Amino acid sequence: MWWKSGLVLLCLGCLVASEPLPSFRIPDLELVLQRHQIPTPDAKYTNAFQDFLVKYMREYKSEEEMVKRFTIFSRNADLVERYNKEDAGKVTYELNDFSDLTDEEWKQFLMKPKPKKLQTPVKKPEIKVENLPESVDWRNFDGKNHVTGIKYQGPCGSCWAFATAAAIESAMSFDNRGLQSLSSQQLLDCTPVSDKCGGGEPSEALSYAKLHGITTARNYPYYFWTTKCRENVPTVAKISGWIEAENEDEMASIVASRGPMIVCANFATNKNRFYHSGIAEDPECGTEPTHALVVIGYGPDYWLLKNTYSKVWGEKGYMRVKRGVNWCGINTERPLLPVL
Predict the structure, then answer these.
(1) Four-residue CA torsion sign, 229, 121, 146, 166
(2) Where is the chain membrane-spanning (predicted)?
(3) Which CATH class is domain 105-339?
């Protein structure tokens, strides 16, 4: 149910131009709710829910399912309203594609927490943390973009594969090999030590890219679920290893001088789920990594993160988080930079 909108998006191009698009609105929503013993809700909930259905092209298989989703949506709407009051002037939150999901369903988008294990970096150059620029944004560095567009991972905990592919994409661009999307699906399918859509370690995906290389997303597209590993695809990039940052100062130095890095953080909070804008700082956030992202830059007091929840999430797919406080355990697992 809750991933149907992603598939609908893929199929819009199949519709005949003269065929009217479905409205996705529910006629007589209030009557349907009353029929299922739901008291007449405030119009702010029904109007917001109708807008949500249209924006995310959501459909449900039955009235019972719709009523269940409306109830969850209304609770989440109250949560977003409370968060906006709590963090007014600092961070804003909004209802989004995850708004009709329970906490348990939402967490299926995340990786399952894994035991910490020591990783040995392949490369450890001298890292200088002095005289760094005040801010860096690899989407526009001296007029050149080194970051591919925002992707959508869907109902699969494949963030680790997307983050790995994204960091290698930027490394290729940084090395003047052009900017092109690489196959997160290949890493998802073929990285042997992973739980696939249940999560994986970016270091294991980097190990795969070191041994076998990686192809383009065009050659090996994303399907929103695990498929059989395809081995006979052309390799467009192969890394020689990676660099680890031991702390946030080192991460800033590496990002400033060498490009975007992979990071893992604890994303299993509703403030992260409904983040819209501002510099996130959630003191109640844990430090156990559940989500992989890419640091594509920083400002004086924040990290700039690239996410894989589509452009309608956050700041057009990006997120700013508090720098220097180990936000949500962003430095619990060492940040990684692929080296070609």
Answers:
(1) positive
(2) none
(3) alpha beta
